[in-house]
Design brief:
Largest sheet: none
Shape: rod-shaped
Strand content: under 5%
Radius of gyration: 22 Å
Order of helices and strands: HH
Structural class: mainly alpha
Number of helices: 2
Number of strands: 0
Oligomer: single chain
Length: 50
Amino acid sequence: MENNLIESNTELNQPILPRSAWVSNVAYLRALFKAKKALDRIEKESEINK
């Protein structure tokens, strides 16, 4: 059964792992880093105003 799956993937030239998951993970991490950067900036500004 496993050999049939590998052969069918090879015949269709499709990747075994989906690539869309990688793209969405990268987008999620970018959004996360932007949010952290914004929160760090807000925290730094609040310390200056004290």
